[in-house]
Amino acid sequence: MNNNSRVANLLIRPATDADIPQMIELARRSWLSAFAQTAPFAVISWWARVDRTRTHYEKHWSEMIVLEEAGAIAGLLQVIEAEINGLWVHPSRQGEGVGTRLLRKGEQIVTDDGHEAAWLTCSAYNTRALAFYGRRGYAETGRTRYVHESGVELVDVTMEHRF
């Protein structure tokens, strides 16, 4: 069985409060996978110290969708109106189609809500994600520079996919 048919058979469902520990662990591992080699150390150090991941998922789990296989969460997604606000795939499952399946589910939610486009922001340091979204039809529409709480200037890339 190839990865695409394997991923097609995985369950996409609303997150439950019982998923919170797995979601936090997945988000932490995915974040480190995305930024450990590219982001300045001050940002990584701040992220580890502040632990916004736990706070975010404990507060917003009910707005999330997970993709699971045999009780293990392989990826998660948060959609807010037309925004793909968060898409994370466990590093051990990256490159298998999990992210694409979740992204397409998010786009379906966006279109079902009557929007003509989905949009997202992605850190310029997350080069793999920028390439991932670009290959799936997202185009850059702007960049925002700001000083992060760590004291480092960061750049967020806004991308949009019209339907």
> What is the CATH superfamily classification of the domain at 3-115?
Gcn5-related N-acetyltransferase (GNAT)
- CATH class group of the domain at 3-115: Alpha Beta
Order of helices and strands: HEHHHEEEHEHEE
Radius of gyration: 15 Å
Class by SSE composition? alpha+beta
Chain-averaged pLDDT: 93
Kindly state the percentage of residues in helix: 25-40%
- Beta-strand proportion: 25-35%
What ranges have pLDDT less than 50 throughout 5 or more consecutive residues?
none
Q: Strand sequence of the main sheet, in spatial order?
A: 1-2-3-4
- What is CATH's topology name of the domain at 3-115? Aminopeptidase
Annotation, overall tally of beta strands: 7
Number of helices: 6
**Shape-level CATH architecture of the domain at 3-115:** 3-Layer(aba) Sandwich
- The coarse overall form would be globular
Major sheet: 4 strands, antiparallel
Intertermini distance = 31 Å
